[in-house]
């Protein structure tokens, strides 16, 4: 018979172990940790029986008693599903067997489908030119998930602009699997303190109050975070960004854009692994600034809002948002960010909201994309569309579609019809710049 003290301890522990629904189905991650047995087995057993896993015989378990052979494989046990007919909520990867030649990945979450890492392309750009190529490893973050065929990046040994080892890149390199980071009512982020009442990632979810906190955006790790398998030498120094997403974030944008309201701190968070990738005085890096060093000045704000497509500057702020070129509002006012997602999702940058900024995700997707460098559009050519098409599928020379089928290129642009652009649409740098820099 349990003592009163033991019963009390059990009652305190149960809410932390059970998944909070928050009014949404399948809410395994609602800010804090999900059920332990969702990711781990007890003594390398499942349902009371010893199991073999990832080539190991029964009784010789995976590290940390994970259900997958590694951390990313454990994540993909839920986040990849065979047989999806289209984008499906929390799925972030398409099985390779479902992407034969010319067929694109299926998932359309803002971060992108890791399936693009499985797609490589070759093409001839012009008469007399040598064969060009775009390896799958160039299309995004090469998470190591052995059970699902995702391998270490063969092109980069460490993170560009940093020293994070490619061999250790996994889902938990960015996301805290136990969801310890929480946002309090005053906007501060901590790993302990008030209980977590909900995800904190969604515009229609619960918000923190005097008694309860919510989870950090997308379970992203904050200051001091590092995967247990890697060690504290790679601890994060910057906290998670302020952002909120719609509940239906994984969907086609064939008719309407999917608006994530990015507030501030995204580029600074990316610098946890890519500290020297920007022109910020820390040495090396790329040319384009981002984050606090890259405010969208008055001229750029005006141009972003007026730009619709090549040759068309008739736009207005209320309808100028383009998901292929998002920006930070420059604020951590969550009431404002939630309103942007739910009430004014097509609104462009405004200095009335804060200090709009270019960020890493203005040009890149967090997981992967159909283009080199995980970019949102093809930055390796001067045109997004040519003769009204994304691709030159079937033609001998393919300088713009670069080996992608029209179906693949369309999916890489999240099903946005090519007809919404000009027939000869310039690179989307021109959404902010009057000419391509």
UniProtKB/TrEMBL annotation:
* Keywords per UniProt: Electron transport, Heme, Iron, Membrane, Metal-binding, Signal, Transport
Q: Where are the transmembrane segments?
A: none
Protein location: Membrane
The protein's matches in InterPro entries, at most eight in alphabetical order, are given as: Cytochrome_c-type_ET, Multihaem_cyt_sf
- Signal peptide limits: 1-20
The record's section on PANTHER family has:
CYTOCHROME C-TYPE PROTEIN, CYTOCHROME C-TYPE PROTEIN NAPC
Q: What is this protein called?
A: Cytochrome C
Q: Which organism is it from?
A: Geobacter anodireducens
Taxonomic placement? Bacteria, Pseudomonadati, Thermodesulfobacteriota, Desulfuromonadia, Geobacterales
């Amino acid at each position: 018979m349990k003592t009163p003290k033991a019963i009390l301890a059990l009652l305190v522990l149960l809410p932390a172990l059970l998944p909070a629904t928050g009014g949404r189905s399948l809410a395994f991650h609602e800010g804090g940790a999900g059920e332990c047995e969702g990711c781990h087995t007890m003594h390398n057993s499942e349902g009371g029986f010893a199991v073999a896993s990832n080539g190991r015989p029964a009784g010789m378990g995976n590290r940390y008693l994970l259900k997958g052979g590694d951390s990313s494989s454990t994540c993909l046990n839920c986040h990849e599903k065979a047989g999806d007919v289209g984008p499906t909520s929390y799925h972030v990867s398409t099985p390779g067997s479902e992407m034969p030649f010319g067929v694109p990945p299926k998932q359309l979450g803002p971060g992108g489908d890791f399936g693009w890492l499985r797609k490589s392309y070759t093409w001839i750009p012009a008469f007399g030119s040598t064969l060009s190529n775009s390896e799958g490893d160039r299309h995004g973050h090469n998470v190591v998930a052995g059970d699902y065929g995702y391998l270490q990046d063969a092109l980069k040994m460490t993170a560009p602009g940093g020293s994070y080892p490619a061999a250790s890149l996994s889902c938990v390199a960015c996301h805290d699997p136990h969801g310890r980071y929480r946002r309090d009512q005053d906007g501060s982020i901590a790993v302990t303190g008030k209980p977590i009442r909900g995800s904190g990632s969604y515009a229609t979810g619960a918000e923190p109050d005097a008694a309860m906190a919510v989870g950090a955006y997308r379970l992203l790790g904050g200051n001091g975070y590092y995967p247990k398998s890697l060690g504290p030498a790679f601890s994060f120094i910057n906290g998670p960004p302020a952002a909120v997403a719609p509940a239906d974030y994984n969907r086609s944008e064939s008719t309407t854009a999917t608006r994530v309201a990015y507030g501030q701190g995204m580029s600074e968070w990316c610098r946890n692994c890519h500290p020297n990738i920007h022109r910020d005085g820390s040495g090396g890096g790329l040319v384009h600034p981002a984050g606090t060093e890259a405010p969208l000045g008055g001229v750029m704000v005006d141009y972003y809002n007026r730009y619709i497509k090549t040759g068309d500057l008739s736009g207005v702020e209320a309808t100028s948002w383009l998901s292929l070129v998002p920006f930070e509002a420059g604020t951590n006012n969550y009431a404002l960010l939630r309103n942007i997602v739910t009430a004014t999702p097509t609104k462009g940058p405004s200095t009335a909201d804060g200090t709009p900024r270019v960020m890493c995700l203005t040009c890149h997707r967090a997981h992967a994309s159909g283009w080199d460098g995980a970019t949102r559009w093809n930055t390796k050519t001067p045109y997004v569309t040519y003769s009204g098409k994304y691709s030159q599928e079937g033609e001998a020379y393919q300088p713009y579609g670069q080996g992608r089928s029209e179906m693949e290129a369309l999916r890489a642009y999240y099903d946005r019809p090519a007809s919404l652009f000009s027939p000869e649409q310039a690179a989307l740098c021109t959404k902010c710049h009057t000419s391509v820099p």
